[in-house]
Amino acid sequence: LCSDISPLLKDPAAFKALIDLLEDHLRAAFPKIDFIAGLDSRGFLIGPSLAQRLGIGFIPIRKKGKLPGPTESVSYALEYGKAELEIQSDAVEAGQKVVIVDDLLATGGTMCAACELLKRLKAEVLECLVIIELKLLKGAEKLGAVPFYSLLQYD
């Protein structure tokens, strides 16, 4: 299946190559990034490795009820209902620069919700970064003016 990253995760050389590609892209695109924010749950597989390479922190954006302490939350529509995402209220300070990562962009609902959470905390979203984009679902269009980057695109 073209949208399954499991083979990349099972192969250490392939996973290293993936993180190398993402690191090279971010270093070339942005002179300063404060945090990588990863989306629950596959963004947690890519985000910490990428943040560690860049020498910056990682912020989890999770499904409702999973994070300790005070949180900001946002509801968003899914193909099959609605869901809520949360971020810790003190995750970022106003003006800090964040790149959001996930494995896949489909309809864009989760990524848009993550952008909304970071905007509420007054962070600057530099880019939304994914491994795979399913272009037919037009998720990138939902992101509006937020820059978007995908390694692989499928129609």
Search tags:
UPRTase/APRTase, single chain, phosphoprotein, Ade_phspho_trans, alpha/beta, 155 residues, globular, adenine binding, Rossmann fold, acetylation
Could you walk me through the main structural features you see in this protein, from its secondary elements to its overall organization?
The radius of gyration is 15 Å and the shape is globular. The protein has a seven-stranded mixed β-sheet with strand order 3-4-2-1-5-6-7, sandwiched between helices. The protein has a single domain, classed as Rossmann fold (3-Layer(aba) Sandwich), CATH 3.40.50.2020. The protein is an alpha/beta fold and 155 residues long. The protein has helices at residues 6-10, 12-29, 43-54, 109-120, 139-142, and strands at 35-39, 57-63, 71-78, 81-88, 97-105, 124-134, 148-154. Helix 5 (139-142) links the parallel strand 6 and strand 7. The chain is built from five helices and seven strands, in the order H-H-E-H-E-E-E-E-H-E-H-E. Helix 2 crosses helix 3 (43-54).
